[in-house]
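Following up on my earlier thread - several people asked me to post the actual chain instead of describing it. Fair enough. Here it is, all 191 residues.
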Amino acid sequence: MITGAELFVKALRAEGVDALFAYPGGQAIDLFNALYGEKEIEVILPRHEQGLVHAADGYARSTGKVGVCLVTSGPGATNLVTGIATANYDSVPLVCFTGQVSTGLIGKNAFQEVAITDIVKSVCKYAVTVHRRDDLAQAIREAFVIARSGKPGVALVDLPKDIQRQYGSGAYPENTEAGEGLKTGGHCACA
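Reply from S.P.:
Thanks for posting it. Predicted structure:
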């Protein structure tokens, strides 16, 4: 049994992520704590989230790998929107992770709560808020598969704070086909 945050780090390693463009904040702090001491993933700290997403885009364009970024909720998440649209329109594979308030606070106008999946769904291939710890691994796997498959583009996974802290299976799926039903219930514009 591992926390959702620990599974997040395990998933990044399994996906071959060696660079993570990340800016810390309250709703993502558990993810940063799980990354602390991680030797395989270089965490690159920019001065602003908008610069971060463009840097992840540039990394993907120059390396041929999926660009990956992590920010907190609210304004941290909304600062990604222009970069998400740019990468998606230019067919750049990018996976963005956003911290989110706990699931019990979603929809209640909590401090720095933003429905980021609703905001970005028209400018990305896949956007999902994980509502159950059991769905976390599948949501992350689908994001990477969808970002790389067909016409590459952007996937976003919104991670509520309670999901990051909950214990559950450490299993990470090895095989997922794009568009195989999206068990996590995410929005997907790819088919």
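The helical segments are 4-14, 29-35, 49-63, 75-78, 81-89, 116-120, 136-148, 161-165. That should answer part of your original question.
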